[in-house]
Amino acid sequence: MTPTTVFSLVNFLVMPMWLLLIFLPKWKPTKFLIHYKIVPIVLSAIYVLYILQALIANGMMDFGSLKSVMELFTVENAALAGWIHYLAFDLLIGMLMINQNKNVNIHLVLMAPCLFLTFMFGPLGFLLFMVLKALKYNPA
């Protein structure tokens, strides 16, 4: 399977989970998928395969400077592993936000932008969620 095919498959795998988180977070199948972290586990397994391939082919990766990280991402399999890393961790953050919202009770209309922004821009959506959470706890 080519890296391009895997890239398409992991994007296809993660999209339905984000739609469930945004539009049906309280639906029983969504809760099941959040509880068991099935999609992030699958993504993590694929990530491990690509990281192991990269380690075997190129040895230890250098994350010690911006230049070395930029060079690393010029290798197709390493860039794919990095992309899968983003997908898995952003999705885990989205799931964490849904779980925390059980106690915070931010309205779903306000949660949707937080989740969408986490899907698209990771930390930006998480930051918005944390701001809303802080406002909900300290409304004055």
UniProtKB/TrEMBL annotation:
InterPro entries: ABA4-like (IPR025461)
Transmembrane region(s): 6-24, 36-57, 77-98, 110-132
Keyword entries, A-Z: Membrane, Transmembrane, Transmembrane helix
Superkingdom, natural source: Bacteria
One Pfam family in the UniProt entry: ABA4-like
Protein name: DUF4281 domain-containing protein
Origin species: Maribacter algicola
